[in-house]
C-alpha cells in the first residue's frame, strides 16, 4: 500500500525538520484559543495513539465500534505546552513507528475490513489509515513543516 511508504518517508524526514524549529516558534500560540506548534504536535501524538488502536482492533475484531475523542481536551490534559519539544518529537517518532508496524501487518484483503468511529457509518481500514496520514500532513503544515515533497 502506498500509504505505508509515505509513513516510512515521514518518519525519516519529519523529526529532523521539527528539531530545526526555533523554541520561540514552537511555543507561540497564535491566539489564546489556538494551539501552539507544541500543542499541535501533541495532538498528533493523541491521533497516533487512537489510530493505532483502530488499526489493530480492525484487524483483530469483526467490525469494531471505536470511540471518538475530544482533541482539545486531550491536548489540555497532556499539557503539551509545558512539555519538552525534543521529548514530543521522540514520542511522535515512537508512536508512529508502532502504528507503522501495525499497518505493515495488515493483509491485503484486510484493508477492506470495517470499523465505526463514534457515530460514523462503516469505514474501511484503508480509509482510516489514509485519513490518518492526511490529518497528520495537515497538522504538520500548520506547525511549519512542509511535507508535500515527501513521497
Indicate the CATH architecture: Up-down Bundle
**What's the β-strand tally?**
3
Radius of gyration over all CA atoms, rounded:
16 Å
Report mean pLDDT, rounded to a whole number.
96
| Strand arrangement, major sheet | 1-2-3
In helices, the fraction of residues equals 55-70%
What is the succession of H and E elements?
Answer: HHHEHHEEH
Helix-strand category: mainly alpha
Topology:
Layout: H1 2-19, H2 23-27, H3 37-60, E1 65-66, H4 71-78, H5 85-104, E2 114-117, E3 123-124, H6 125-143
Parallel strand pairs: 1-2
Antiparallel strand pairs: 2-3
Structural overview:
It is a single chain. The chain has six helices and three strands; from the N terminus they run αααβααββα. It has 151 residues and is mainly α. It has a single domain, classed as dinb family like domain (Four Helix Bundle (Hemerythrin (Met), subunit A), Up-down Bundle), CATH 1.20.120.450. Strands 1-2-3 form a three-stranded mixed beta sheet. It is globular. 25% of the residues are buried. The mean pLDDT is 96.
Keywords:
Four Helix Bundle (Hemerythrin (Met), subunit A), 6 helices, 5% strand, single chain, three-stranded mixed sheet, mainly alpha, 151 residues, globular
Concise synopsis of the structure shown:
The chain is mainly α. It is built from six helices and three strands, in the order H-H-H-E-H-H-E-E-H.
Amino acid at each position: 500500500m502506498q500509504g505505508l511508504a509515505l509513513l516510512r518517508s515521514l518518519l525519516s524526514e519529519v523529526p529532523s525538520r521539527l528539531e530545526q524549529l526555533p523554541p520561540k516558534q514552537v511555543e507561540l500560540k497564535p491566539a489564546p484559543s489556538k494551539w501552539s506548534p507544541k500543542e499541535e504536535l501533541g495532538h498528533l501524538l493523541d491521533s497516533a495513539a487512537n489510530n493505532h488502536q483502530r488499526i489493530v482492533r480492525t484487524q483483530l475484531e469483526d467490525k469494531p465500534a471505536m470511540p471518538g475523542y475530544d482533541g482539545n481536551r486531550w491536548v489540555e490534559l497532556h499539557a503539551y505546552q509545558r512539555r519538552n519539544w525534543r521529548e514530543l518529537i521522540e514520542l511522535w517518532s515512537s508512536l508512529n513507528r508502532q502504528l507503522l508496524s501495525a499497518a505493515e501487518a495488515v493483509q491485503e484483503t484486510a484493508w477492506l475490513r470495517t470499523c465505526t468511529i463514534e457515530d460514523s457509518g462503516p469505514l474501511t481500514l484503508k480509509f482510516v489509515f489514509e485519513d490518518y496520514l492526511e490529518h497528520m500532513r495537515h497538522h504538520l503544515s500548520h506547525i511549519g513543516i512542509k511535507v508535500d515533497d515527501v513521497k
